[in-house]
Amino acid sequence: MSKHHYIVPMARAAVADPKLFRPDWTVGISRDPALLWLDKNENTDPQMAELVSRVLSDIDQTAIRTYPECAPLYHKLGAYLGIGADHLLLTAGSDGAIRSVFEAYIDPGDVVMHTVPTFAMYAVYSSMYGASVIPLDYHPSDNGPFLSVEAVLKTIAEIRPKLVCLPNPDSPTGTVFIPDQLRRIIEAAGEAGSLILIDEAYYPFYGNTIISWVDEYTNLVVTQTFAKAWGLSGLRIGYAAACPELARILHKVRPMYEVNTVAVATMEKMLDHSHEMMASVKRLNAGKEVFLDAMEDLGLKVLRSQGNFLHVAFGDYASTVHERLKAKVLYRLDFKEPCLKGFSRFSATTPERFNPIIECIRQTINERRNKL
């Protein structure tokens, strides 16, 4: 069949820019089902997986062939969060919520401020919508990545950006700003005429949330997700919360249907199981502490992240440990960013699932030490 070549319109300049790069969508990265997947900060708690399976099996099959009706979930979620349904926008994960903020507010040439390193899509959306980025760089320290609240406040006051993006906890650093610091940052952004996005994807692994503040601050958007604590990464459902005036603006850029019917039906039922979700978070946080304590007992440097992940530096034992673990578990081996260089990242799992990994690391390091 012959191919017809036509002159087509140019894409938006920001999208056509060759510096805006996305991975090849035709090439996947397979994850061996025989391994424990601790590479993407998913919920690997078997009890939570069992609950999700039960709930999914109870979903009416009409959800597959009908378009979603989201209003009941908006009201149920608002009641669960303690805010009005008119404060919320359902989205395809918290990633979709972040994109909605950019789409609604960012014009070419606007200034966006975000941390570095952080969730990759902040840089992508900044490029996609033609924004200029002012980075807030984490620096190496004896206690891991560090960014002072004073540096954030100073940069906001000097630059007066259109949008400030601040994940809390941040990823991959696992760092947080405590509530008093967040108030100072949000108020500084308001005084500078800036919108501020606080991304709480790792709530409630980190127990503090400021979602109730959306009634206090008219410049604040808070995003959360059902992917991690709720064990629903594959359903791609999350939300943005803001004062009603901001929420109405965000709704202007939503697609015809915010999320799919199966996700809506599942979350309506899952919200009845918040106690089980919190119990799962407790198990995963306990597993994280068991792993970190064991690594410290071996004399290794660790970072006690506030997300559902952790960092350990294997140092001189790194290559041997990585070789031994590759038949057991998938995890992030190292980072190019200076503030995390030399650290490996593991997603949190339960103590029972961490124990074989701990024992493998312990045996590997002790064997090496006995040879010296």
Verbal overview:
The protein folds into 2 domains: 13-43 and 275-371, Aspartate Aminotransferase, domain 1, CATH 3.90.1150; 61-273, 3-Layer(aba) Sandwich (Aspartate Aminotransferase, domain 2), CATH 3.40.640. It has a 7-stranded mixed β-sheet with strand order 2-8-7-6-5-3-4, with helices on both faces. It is of the alpha/beta class and 372 residues long. The model has no long low-confidence stretch (mean pLDDT 96). It is globular, with a radius of gyration of 22 Å. It has helices at 13-16, 46-57, 62-65, 71-81, 93-105, 121-128, 149-159, 179-191, 244-251, 261-270, 274-297, 318-325, 351-371; strands at 36-37, 88-91, 111-116, 132-137, 163-167, 195-199, 220-225, 238-242, 301-303, 309-313, 329-330, 344-347.
Radius of gyration over C-alpha positions, nearest whole angstrom? 22 Å
User: Distance between termini?
Assistant: 68 Å
CATH architecture of the largest domain: 3-Layer(aba) Sandwich
What name does CATH use for the topology of the largest domain?
Aspartate Aminotransferase, domain 2
Average pLDDT confidence is: 96
Catalogue the unreliable spans.
none
Question: Count of helices?
Answer: 13
Order of helices and strands: HEHHHEHEHEHEHEEEHHHEEHEEH
